[in-house]
Amino acid sequence: MEADFNNMHQEVDVAEQRLLNPFYYKFGKNVTKMLQGINDHVSKGAFKKVVKSKPSASVVVRLEEQPISLEPTIAKVWSCIVDKDVGIIG
Prior knowledge:
single chain, flat
């Protein structure tokens, strides 16, 4: 029984290798083609016309608003956050 299992396991391994080898070969071949194409474009300088630096993002400075009459609530919540014995707030 163990010999049959080992034989079957070996046959499965061989079958998997037969099916997977063409895939890996084809995938590796496609990757090699792509890398060669990229190297050709880079060596010709084909990307210099396409790539430009981005303009700096416009930033709007907003003043920070202070909450009115929420300070006691914020202080209470903050004390609950800092306290180690409190697990749930609310």
